[in-house]
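User: Could you check the structure of this?
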Amino acid sequence: MLAAARLLTGGIWQPTLRIKPLVFCRCPSRPFSAQGHLPQLPIPPLRHTLERYLLALQPLVTPEELEQTRQMVREFSKPLGVGMKLQDRLEKRSLRMENWLTDWWLQSAYLTCRLPLAVHSNPAVVLPKQDYNDWKGQLRFAAKLIAGVLDFKAKLDSHVLPTEYSRGKPLCMDLYSKVLSSCRIPGPKHDTLLNYGNTRSPPTHVTVVRNFQFFHLDVYNSDGSPLTVDQIHLQLQRIRNLSWKTDKEPLGVLTSDHRNTWGQAYNTLMKDKLNRESVRAIQQSMFTVCLDSPVLKISEEKYTSRMAAQMLHGGGSYSNSGNRWFDKTLQFIVGEDGSCGVIYEQSSAEGPPIATILDHILDYCKDPDTLRAPMTPLPLSKKLYFYITPEIKRDIEHAKQNLDILVNDLDISCFTYRNFGKDFPKQHGISPDSFVQMALQLAYFRMYKELCSTCETVSLRNFHLGRTDVVRSASKDSLEFVESMDNAEKEVNEKIAALRRAIDCHSAYTEMTLKGLAIDRHLLGLKLQAIEEGLSVPEIFMDTSFAVATHWRLSTGQVSARADCVMCFGPMEPDGYGVWYNPLENHINFSVSAFNCCEETNAEWFSKSVETALSDMQNLVLEAAGQTS
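Assistant: Sure, the predicted structure tokens are below.
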């Protein structure tokens, strides 16, 4: 019998594991010196994962449901049972692959997912509002932004981009070579991912889109040198002059539709040679720059929330959504009103590398121009034309209707919590991330009188070709903490002790995840191994408890960028919330998303609940320390 309770000592999970020695991958051809010495992602012992799984269920299901699942786990983990066979196959898979998970994760999490990329998949980042409010400032900033990306690319291509480290250990830099010149290609049943950066003739152009019109902009001179800011600015002025009409079909909205629908429309679109050439020019470009029209002015309080929506979906078919190509890995958005940000497609990009690129670009944009444009005349940018048949026009109209429904359904609230930032928890010996995660647990519990499955995305870049896993923030300890907070019979010392146990439990799970020993990707691997071998899906994955455990009503994460920005994304579930935060020294930027179609969720209410939870927890810490707020 699996005794899950034995894993708890004083409320903190303390594993005793026998792990195989780490295997190192040696790939000397890669440009980063540490890349060839990164450890492989391990496969956790089956017993460890199943025990952790039962622990994760404790605050989420009834005792009767837990006992039923425990029986299934016993059966699954028998010495000659299906679980041990699948575990053995996974371990053999690990021996023959650079990373046993990455290919599976790419397919299952992204390329086979059929939901629209807009809101449901592509995250966005809202950057600080820029100091301009007209088209002249817009083009000038866009020119510097493009030059800044080219400067970053030059460092990447010349192998001088330094290897990143976390906790003194090198991180996998593989994603940096995939962010530029990549694009997702729709299919009627599953998508594909193409990268043109490693071809014999890598792309030398970017896509610029304005008023629903796309342009091929070469950003290198014939000698291979990048265009200067002045040269790019001149080309952007020409593009503006060529795109003053707004009566074009918003072809880009096709990319926002359901993947099956877009896949079918894509096949129709690509039957025409002119369309094929134009679409491939977009797909092969290094990145896209969206020159957006200004949006309706609103109060300063709601500005960031409105901008987050603009970055995520473009505001709808009659706003700037036609200026997007959601399949493109990297799209920079520069508004005429000073708004700016980025939206990215996740199959070949993730938050931390995107944050690093953005920090570099913003630093670049702060520097005064030093190079002046030479007098050499530049060729006009190539406008990309499309032949819109009646069938394609119907597809566009259908996509517009679906997108506008999605735009109206998204409920998003961005706010800055200013009472403290990450410095306050640190001063009291508390992990800032764990502190925020417990505030999210408290906020949710106060609204719904229960906890829910909560995932916090954590990077696995400390492993070769590592992507992500999740920390489960809902635990027996976090439940005890949130129940104690509003219990008048509990003393301050009891509440602070409960808070510290919950934080220690979350921190321990985080450490476990960073070691590649979290449970969710391992469980996914066991399930996919069974499917790959044509076996019946094991009973534990068909269980009600498993459905509850993987129904992420709170999907959360943080990306620590130096810029005073906030990342945003849509909820993972129709009745859930998407919460992202950027903890800076003295304040924390938050975005909270939900869907209006769900009567139980409200992004603004949850935001207020999070603010109150943070303040109450701050007061508790100060009171316990003998201080006043």
